[in-house]
Amino acid sequence: MKIIQRPLYMQKILPMINTEFIKIITGVRRSGKSYLLLMIRDELLNHGVDSEQIIYLNFENPEYLDILSFDKLYQYLKEKVNSNKKVYFLFDEIQEVSQWQKLINGLRVAYDSDIYITGSNASILSGELATYLTGRYVEIKVQPLTLNEYLNFKGYSDSAEKHFNDYLEYGGFPAVVLQTDNQLKNDVLKGIFNSILLRDVTQRATIKNPEALERITLFLLSNIGQLVNVNRIANTLRSSGLKISNNTIEGYLKLLEEAYLFYKVPRYDIRGKEYLRGQGKYYVVDLGFVRSQLRRQGTNRGSMIENLVFLKLLSEGYEVFVGKYDNKEIDFVASNNDETVYLQVTDHIPQSSKRETDNLLHLATGYRKILITNSWSDVGEIDGIPVIHLVDFLTNFKGK
Predict the structure, then answer these.
(1) Model pTM above 0.70
(2) Which SS3 state, helix, strand or coil, does residue 372 take?
(3) DSSP 5
(4) Which of 293, 275, 236, 280 is nearest to 254 (CA)?
């Protein structure tokens, strides 16, 4: 299959090639991590690295089932490595190898090497890895396709708005985007969703109540962008006759986050400059799951476009919070090393209301403030605050 380039990530990776840091590529299953590894391999070959210096292994390939322990894998690699030359290790889904952290650290010490690994669960960044490799790795976070990437994958060169609804409905998983039949898109989405729950959640923890896990997942999908806490989820489940403890719910929520299926966005008190414990908002990694799992029931368009804005901010390298300023809510506070941006998101601005801009106007001057709307008639400027259409934001906004 032809590899479609993803410059959004390659631009981040290229400066890291041949550095001492282990490159850890993380993200939800089927988001394109494997193809990113292949792009790195091609980049190395194009720059004169001999193919014998590159060792690429995909540990979900049945061919490697008999070397899924660190000692067997090390013996296998010793036979492959030419110790007289620099070696490039590219390991896909490394978490399938038992005690892989010990192996990676050993390879780093034993060889003149450049190491790239991928994983579909955030747990690979904790535990023994942190112990062995503190300060010696960098993380590259991969998401399903942004709107710009979606247009590139489809080969579209006309108006982004013309194709936006399809992107909103079916999301940005590459395997889905490359399909043309809508029923097949739904089937692929269901398969990806079930694979995440089975392989990256259920199989990595002792799930004593799979029904509860599924119900929690559907609850989060139905309440995208809403303030949620454990008590609210527990009350909803118990009211339908499902007995479950708050501790169990907290554990399942953590597993869903570690599988990159959902992102929890904490609340931040802007005036008090502190994080607020308890309530936060959850956003899904890809909106196609809303359609495939809920058929859009229970999730409104405003919440979905808010989800898209959140994912765009992540792709631009921002750390994102839900803002609170006295009794006013700010949809997003987005920060990176260079700036803080305050954003409000709305499907449209009601003629009789200035709530969206008023919330921003109360904030201190000197910060970037943006109101994002899904209505072209709203676009312009209100009280000095730029009002940007959602599609323009998704295709043109860049972090400083």
Answers:
(1) yes
(2) strand
(3) P
(4) 280
For 262-339, strand residue ranges (E) read 262-269, 274-284, 319-325, 328-335
Cα 4 to Cα 152: distance, rounded to the nearest angstrom:
8
Tokens of 51: 């193919």
* Beta carbons within 10 angstroms of residue 131's beta carbon: 11
Q: Which residues contact 219 (CB under 8 A, 6 or more apart)?
A: 233, 236, 237
In tens digits, the chain (400 residues) has pLDDT values of 568 899 999 999 999 999 999 999 999 999 999 999 999 999 999 999 999 999 999 999 999 999 999 999 999 999 999 888 999 999 999 999 998 988 998 999 999 999 999 999 998 887 666 677 778 899 999 999 999 999 999 999 999 999 999 999 999 999 999 999 999 999 999 999 999 998 889 887 778 888 999 999 999 999 999 999 999 999 999 999 998 999 999 999 999 999 999 999 999 888 888 888 877 999 999 999 999 999 765 568 899 999 999 999 999 999 999 998 888 899 999 999 889 999 999 998 887 666 677 889 888 888 899 999 999 999 999 989 999 999 999 999 987 7
* Token duo for residue 154: 């489809």
